[in-house]
Amino acid sequence: MSVRTLPLVFINLGGEMLYILDQRLQAHNTSEDNSEKGVWSEYDRKRVMNDIVGTMFNKGFMDELLKPQQLYSHRTLKTVLTRLAHASIMRLNPASMDRLYELMIMAVKYQVFLCPRPRDLLLISYNHIDTIRELVKETPVALNQVEEAHRKIVEVYSSLSEGEFQLLRQTLLIFLSDSHVRVSLFMKNKVQNPNGRFVLSTSGPVPHGVDIPGLIRTFDSKGKEVKQSEFPTGGSYTSPIREGSFELHGDRVIRLGLNMYTVNHPEETHTSKASSVKHTDDSPNLLAKEELNQLARLMGSMKAENTPKSEPYFRINLFTTDEEGEEEEEEAAERTAGGAEEPLFGVLNIQAMQDEQVATELARIAGQFTEGEEQPDDPSSSSSSSNNKGDDLLAMMDHL
Amino acid sequence: MYHKEKSIQIKNSASSLYNNLSVQRIAPRHLTYFTVVHANVVNMVSASWDGLNYSHRQLQSKEPNVATSTSLIMQAAFCVLPSRDLLVVTSQKGIQMYESDGSIMVYWHALDTPETPTAQAIFGRGISAVGQNYICVGVSSGSILVFDVPSKGSNITLSEVLEEHNESITDLASECSGSQECIADLVSADDGGNLYVWKSGEEFQILNKIAGFDMTCSSVKLWKGTVVAGYGTGQIRIYEAVTGILHAEITAHARWIYSLDIAPFSGLLLSAAEDSLVRVWHLTLTPETNSVEVAHLHNECVTDTQICGAKFCDGDGYAFAVTGYDLSEIIRYTQT
């Protein structure tokens, strides 16, 4: 399949991640009691955004992504994206990261699925880049990195044919197959059904370069048209809208890839599974040797330039499960805040373990995403043997 | 004209690949085989005609000497030759040929894959049985591999490599009317919409080239010397194979066409696209006036589904089957 998917995957998934984090951090900023410890100031939020964008668009990382290569598995991508998210002073608990990943995947799936023409995948990516540029416009270093990366993307992708873009899209669709997590924002906007599938309309403008269906034309052997007849299409299609710009700057016209979280309230980014269909690589087997090598190269090329080791990290729980759970969460926070395990960290809130099964599952996931750099004696590193290699890899990455 | 029947559930969802459904009727055993590709697996279902028995099998893309990575499958198609039937599967690593029930692999051909990936993706795509004893398979480089298949056994050999296309092959089709009078017996299509018309033999000959218009031809059929081609623009074009004369042009779909099929005994044409629609047409060829008539007969909308495979289940077009991206079923329709 296509060997050009990775840069677009990172820009689109990473872009969605930044949109969500930006919105969630602003939501946390609107807490009623401003004297509460750990409230995110505008300065903190901007810092997180700049740190993540800086790492994501780092020249070395981008160059690694732009090399022709196969698309990674979900497990590898999630590992790298978690690392990206943690390139700042922010720390996400494993449950938050899982939910974040689900949301990112569904947003990108929506965009790829509904992309009018295969080439428009590029416009969707440019929408993400344009918005990211806005987020870091006051930080010249990060802004410059984004512009440089954008230039390289334009250079690499401008010459691809429509068929090559469709192959790229098909590769992405295979990667995104069988994800049917329901996102409340999508359901509210009527773009997703209760069964988790996206709505595909048979009305509206046709993509640029496509003719409105409905006509049969027949010709004689000299090429002259001899007959024209219409047929019922079963839809109501209209003329295409103007084409978006593929330049570094310009009106992209299509709306897919723009930040859809800006005008919404925090509670609307709920996700729920319609049906649990496991991705085939969810088994506890190790990553294939090739993928481990790819992961090593990628993580090694990510330079966490902006992460000061002496400063405290701030934990954040992105998605509260329900309003009634808040009281339980406060009690849990009080209990653990007094614990000796994490004296250095400002805790915002801890997700209450309401279910033993959930607790076990979270502990297992936590073992896979141990924060090796700031908690070298974390007890979760002694979890089951199949997770040890993952831990070692992550630890190794930090020393590169 | 058609009504929906009970769907066949398959173990995985269909992947978004061109022509992602292959059907073979085994009349003596009252069975129909279906194959649908999902990532690195071919899902095979054998369905009895009385609708009572279904048996499933999965073929994984197994490549020798590749211990770690899995290879994505691009296409699986039944190839029916006078002497035997084979199931051909193409992937990023090579071409596999199985007995048509998927029980035994009889042949494996590796594609040249360099150690470090180059900018050009490498895979096989486009499968067709041609003439008495050939199976042709397209490659992403634009080459077409011609395999010589003996009437039994695994002594399949690569007979020729046709190097005419400059872009990735998308689909291949052989003359399906059964008529001995047709000169052309193979048409090949590529990512630029270019079509080559061939005569098979010890050395394949080019009979004609029909230039594309920079838009992928994703699916192609050859019937009674007529090429029917479906494009990414949603257009269907009908050409006379040997002369390249354009007989008809249909603005058939609002999105990329993914599959075409022809029922050779009745002249019914099936088209399916990412716009969620399947359309049934009728083609009438009048050799005396060298003209083609196209009539639209029927539409089926598979709600919210980007269709990736559509095939008639029999030579008259009495029934057809459909697959869609992310759908774990084969949807069937029968004439009322």
From TrEMBL, chain B:
Q: Residue ranges of the WD repeat-containing protein 54 beta-propeller domain? A: 1-334
Q: List, alphabetically, the GO terms of the cellular component aspect.
A: centriole; ciliary basal body
From the UniProt record, list the WD repeat ranges. Answer: 250-291
Question: Which keywords does this Swiss-Prot/TrEMBL entry list?
Answer: Repeat, WD repeat
One BP annotation, GO:
cilium assembly
What InterPro entries is this protein classified in? WD40/YVTN_repeat-like_dom_sf, WD40_repeat_dom_sf, WD40_rpt, WDR54_beta_prop, WDR55/POC1
Q: Which domain of life is it from?
A: Eukaryota
Q: PROSITE patterns this protein is in?
A: WD_REPEATS_2, WD_REPEATS_REGION
Spell out the protein name for this chain: WD repeat domain 54
The record's listing under SUPFAM superfamilies reads: WD40 repeat-like
Is Repeat among this UniProt entry's keywords? yes
